[in-house]
Structure formats: structure tokens, C-alpha cells
Amino acid sequence: MTVALSPTPVLETERLVLRAPQGADWQAWAPFSGSDRSRFIGGPLDRAQAFRAFGHVIGMWAIRGFGSFVFTEKGSDVALGMAGPWYPEGWPEREIGWTLWSAEAEGKGYAFEAAAAARHHAFAALGWDTAVSYIDPENARSIALARRLGAVEDRGAAHPGDRPCLVFRHPTPEACHV
């Protein structure tokens, strides 16, 4: 049985479908969150920690009415990663975040395509007028993606937690042609 959050938006790009997370996505999330690939978002996690983290991902939709979208290739329901608006309690600003869950998805532009669509949604549908991305200073791929999205480092911005973090500020909705 597949249980889904409703009503939640579904976004489509040229190649991708972005939808709210579903319980079945746990099968892709668990190996990612337990691997070294998750090191820039607090991992690797054991299965119990990964389960709670995935609950946080789903819970954001229920609590805030928005959250990260799981993205898949059109015609497939295999979760490739996640991208979208993110705003946990206590964070200084609303974020556009992204993760790729498998190495096979890297280098194809999926994260860029998903993050750009999710950012457009945050600006156009949610009415955000600003957004940041919090990125580990060692995460060169995410730094490059933030820059490709037109975000610039904001050295004066606050960031969550006590771990080192760079803050990249996204262009305004007007600059993104929202």
C-alpha cells in the first residue's frame, strides 16, 4: 500500500517529476543516509537515525505545508534525490536544499533541474522573496551547483547549528524571472 501526503503539488521539468516524499522512498533514502554520500548533511546515519530523519522530511510537509520534493525521471518512480524548500524550527532563514541519493544520478544535471524548479515554486507559489542554501565548506559539488543557480556567498548571513557552513543567497524572484 502506498500512502501519500495530500494535497501536495507535483512539479514537472523537461526530464523530471518532483513530488512529495512517499513511504516507498525509504528504500532509496536508507542506503543514501547510511553512506558516506550523506556526510555533508549530517550522515552517515544508522537505520534508526535515518528513519527519524526521513520522518523529518515527510513531517515538514505536514507542519509547514511545503517541503523537499523527491525527484524521479519522467516515466519512472525511482527516487533519485530530493530538492526543495526547507525551513526547520530554529533556522535563521528559509532554504532551498538538494541531495542526490545515488552516484549514478551525478553529472546529469538532475540536481540543477530539480533545485531550479523547486526554487521557482518557492518564489511563485509560496511567495518567498529570498532564499539561501546552507552548504558544508567541503562540499565542492554543492557549492558549484549553488553558483550555477546564480547564488552568491553571503558571508554576513547567520547559519543554523554549530558546524561550519557557507551561506549562498539565491537571486531575487525578479532576477529569476518568477
How is this structure best described in words?
With 178 residues, the protein is α+β, with helices and mostly antiparallel strands. The chain has a single domain (11-169), classed as Gcn5-related N-acetyltransferase (GNAT) (Aminopeptidase, 3-Layer(aba) Sandwich). Helices cover 28% and strands 19% of the residues. The chain has four helices and eight strands; from the N terminus they run ββααβββαβαββ. The strands form two sheets. A five-stranded antiparallel β-sheet has the order 1-2-3-4-5, with helices on one face. Strands 6-8-7 form a three-stranded antiparallel β-sheet, with helices on one face. β1 (11-12) and β2 form a beta hairpin. α1 packs across α2. It is globular and about 40 Å long. The mean pLDDT is 94.
Provide a brief overview of the structure.
This protein has 178 residues and is of the alpha+beta class.
Key structural traits:
178 residues; alpha+beta; Aminopeptidase; 28% helix
